[in-house]
Amino acid sequence: MLDNWYADQHAAGSVAESAIVVRGAGESQLIDLMNATLARFPGLKVFSLPHMSETDRYIELGVRGEAQRIPAAIAELKSGVVGLGFAWADTP
Q1: Structural domain tally of the chain?
Q2: Blockwise average pLDDT, block size 10, the chain, 92 residues
């Protein structure tokens, strides 16, 4: 309904999101990477969502914003995660 009323306020499909799963890292270990990504890609949102259960622990790390900028920003996160010594996987 909001898309109908406020269609002139945004371009359909212009916002996208991409995320990866990072295992073995704490959020505090990813803060500098997240801040660097924010600085390099102003206007995008960087997020981290910790998931913890009795059998599994991981962080979903991603970016959201202007669709054309998402591939470069997620590539930077992937590279940064590897540079920190952690492995990443695509989100299921």
Answers
A1: 1
A2: 56 84 95 97 96 91 96 98 97 84
